[in-house]
């Protein structure tokens, strides 16, 4: 399977983003660039949980609806959601209406607050799982790595839900804990430059 495609601007990009201009913007502007903002980290781990069994395209098209539904993924606010909020969200046609996944976001918000108290920020925790030493496989991008398995195990031990190894690796890819742009993708070097300038929170 081809790992690259050439867009209308003549630049090579990772083949997975060829579907739509919105996908290309996400690939170009977000995916693979290091993130230390707690709200964005929490949003992404939650949205990856919603993606479980679905495609990221489905979630990306609904992302603004998810942000509105979950108060811009302010985990301090979401942790206070109750059964009435779950009932409300189950009626929201703009998101994925899955009771277990909705409940998981609320649960995970409470766990995120605990993690913030323990580590000072979510970023300080997640960046202990930077996995750049695990090279992209020559035949393509893996679904999981040893680092994503360890992250998943740690999160589950802390009570998080919908955080399997595949979900965790997709999160790591998106938030720049690894750079899985194809080496010949026009944005591989840009992501590398961003990472070189990035100071992981410690």
Q: What does this 3D model show about the protein?
A:
With 202 residues, this protein is mainly alpha-helical. It has one domain (36-197): Hypothetical protein, domain 2 (Endonuclease III, domain 1), CATH 1.10.340. Helix content is 52%, strand content 3%. The protein has 11 helices and 2 strands. The protein has helices at residues 21-29, 38-51, 56-61, 63-69, 75-78, 83-90, 99-119, 122-126, 146-157, 165-174, 188-197, and strands at 4-6, 12-14. It has a two-stranded antiparallel ribbon. The protein starts with a strand and ends in a 5-residue tail after the last helix. The model has no long low-confidence stretch (mean pLDDT 93). GO terms for molecular function: DNA-3-methyladenine glycosylase activity; metal ion binding. It comes from Celeribacter halophilus. Zn(2+) binds at residues 14, 27, 181, 185. InterPro entries: Adenine_glyco, DNA-3mA_glycosylase, DNA_glycosylase. Pfam families: Adenine_glyco.
List keywords for this structure.
2 strands, single chain, globular, 202 residues, Endonuclease III, domain 1, two-stranded antiparallel sheet, mainly alpha
